């Protein structure tokens, strides 16, 4: 037996379980040049919400009544390919199916003896690469600067903060519970933390935590927290727009403060990106992250949910902040 998870409806606002459909399908057999894959770990990420909209973006939207796809670690069960053998583990953008075939395009072998397999979806995968290359290519972080990170207890945010400390910066993180603030300070060595849910005045809180202002702001949430960070940005500051989870489920486009005068008067750089903008540097980035991991300069946290049937709920739980670090489903 084989099961797939399809996108049944385009969500209006916050996704719901009714927006997904489980379908029993045939277990495929690999043809010449193909491999049969068994899904082992599934990455669920906020950006998938954008692909559920029928609109032009940097990546094609999901089609209704077709399987959702995301980053997946899979085991090669059968191989008719010269590039892969039975027992290999691979990482790739694959569909939410228990079993599927692939011609190998876009698949990368991963070594479970060097790091846990799930790490290749997180700190050694697109998550870690996003953090490193966002800081390197846009943030241009320098020793002694102040780095502010929103979504600081999430998968990308925790890596961003740790790289900031490796680079010799003061790092301040923003998260949504006291427990998460405690974690980013004790486990990930952030200097300060701000619980935005218990803070009445975010601009003032950032000013107190960053008395020398903010040189680089790594933004994972957008919205009012971005506005507060802008109020504290230094001259020639850099704002890295990585995500905007606070806005992903909005049904109407919100309006807020206009930042043009701040950008002009303070010569601030504000740039959005997707990690694939820097694809030519992926290999070097993974090597650097792996080195830091081996040197115990990087650590990571995962929230692992077990069961193929739990994938949609795990995705929905992202929008309630139920994950600590990377959200992964073990199949």
UniProtKB/TrEMBL annotation:
State if Oxidoreductase is listed as a keyword.
yes
What would be an example GO MF term here? Answer: oxidoreductase activity, acting on the CH-CH group of donors, NAD or NADP as acceptor
* Domain Enoyl reductase (ER), residue spans: 13-329
Write down a Pfam family by its short name: ADH_zinc_N
Keyword Glycoprotein among UniProt keywords: no
Q: Please, which domain of life does this record's source organism belong to?
A: Bacteria
Which keywords does the record carry?
A: Oxidoreductase
| InterPro entries the UniProt entry points to | ADH-like_C (IPR013149), ADH_N_2 (IPR041694), ER (IPR020843), GroES-like_sf (IPR011032), MDR_fam (IPR045010), NAD(P)-bd_dom_sf (IPR036291)
Gene3D superfamilies with a match to the protein in the record: Medium-chain alcohol dehydrogenases, catalytic domain, NAD(P)-binding Rossmann-like Domain
Under what name is this protein listed?
A: NADP-dependent oxidoreductase
């Amino acid at each position: 037996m084989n099961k797939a998870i399809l996108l049944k409806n385009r969500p209006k606002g916050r996704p719901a379980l009714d927006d997904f459909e489980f379908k029993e399908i045939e277990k495929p057999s690999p043809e010449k040049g193909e491999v049969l894959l068994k899904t082992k770990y599934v990455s669920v990420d906020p950006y998938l919400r954008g692909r559920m909209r029928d609109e032009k973006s940097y990546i094609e939207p999901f089609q209704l009544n077709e399987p959702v796809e995301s980053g997946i670690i899979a085991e090669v069960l059968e191989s008719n390919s010269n590039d892969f053998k039975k027992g290999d583990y691979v990482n790739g953008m694959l569909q939410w199916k228990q079993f599927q075939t692939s011609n190998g395009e876009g698949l990368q072998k991963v070594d479970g003896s060097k790091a846990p397999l799930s790490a290749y979806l997180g700190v050694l995968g697109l998550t870690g690469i996003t953090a490193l290359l966002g800081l390197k290519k846009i943030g241009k972080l320098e020793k002694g600067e102040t780095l502010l990170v929103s979504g600081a207890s999430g998968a990308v945010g925790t890596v961003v903060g740790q790289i900031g400390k490796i680079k010799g910066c003061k790092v301040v993180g923003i998260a949504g519970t006291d427990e998460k603030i405690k974690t980013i300070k004790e486990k990930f060595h952030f200097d300060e933390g701000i619980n935005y849910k218990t803070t009445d005045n975010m601009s003032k809180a950032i000013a107190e935590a960053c008395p020398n202002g903010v040189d680089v702001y790594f933004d994972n949430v957008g919205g009012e927290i971005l506005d507060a960070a802008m109020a504290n940005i230094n001259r020639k500051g850099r704002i890295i727009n990585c995500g905007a989870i606070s806005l992903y489920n909005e049904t109407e486009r919100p309006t807020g403060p206009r930042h043009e005068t701040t950008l002009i008067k303070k010569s601030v750089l504000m740039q959005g990106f997707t990690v694939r903008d820097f694809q030519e540097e992926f290999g070097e980035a993974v090597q650097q992250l792996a080195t830091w991991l081996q040197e115990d300069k990087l650590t990571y946290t995962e929230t692992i949910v077990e069961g193929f049937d739990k994938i949609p709920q795990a995705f929905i739980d992202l929008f309630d902040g139920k994950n600590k670090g990377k959200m992964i489903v073990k199949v």
